[in-house]
Amino acid sequence: MSRNKILMQERMKNVPQAPYNTITVFIKKASGAVMTDVEGREYLDFAGGIGVNNVGHCHPRVVAAIKDQAEKFIHPCFHVAPYEPYVELAARLNGLAPGDFPKTSENLPKARYRPNHRRSTDWCRPYREIFCH
């Protein structure tokens, strides 16, 4: 039995169905738009996960930024303990958003649940342009 099939059986036994999978192979590594499964086969990633849509998997500047941040702290929950980079990013997004009115920005996933609350997010500008200067 293939390694992918064994892993899928384990997945079905140990993980709820709610986080469904669109493919039945398990990715071991990825770089740019190429993903390699646990059996060494390569696939082009046409779907891209959160955080890789514009610069690809393991972009060197993104990896360096993650390593740098991980040495400081991972995620102390801004609602409990605010931190400076969160405010700096909000200010950058506010500056990029069009319109002549006061803007505020916050964590994007949470923003989706408050559709009537005005917020600035630049959905169109590539990740590389905004975050990798």
Task: Give a structural overview.
- This protein starts with a helix and ends with a helix.
- The protein is 34% helix and 9% strand.
- The chain has helices spanning 3-14, 60-70, 84-96, 108-111, 127-131; strands spanning 27-31, 34-37, 42-44.
- Strands 1-2-3 form a 3-stranded antiparallel sheet, with no helix packed on it.
- The longest helix is centred in the C-terminal third of the chain and has 13 residues, at 84-96.
- The chain is α+β, with helices and mostly antiparallel strands.
- The protein has 2 domains: 3-58, Aspartate Aminotransferase, domain 1 (Alpha-Beta Complex), CATH 3.90.1150.10; 84-131, no CATH class.
- A hairpin with a 4-residue loop joins β2 and β3.
- It is elongated.
- It is built from 5 helices and 3 strands; from the N terminus they run αβββαααα.
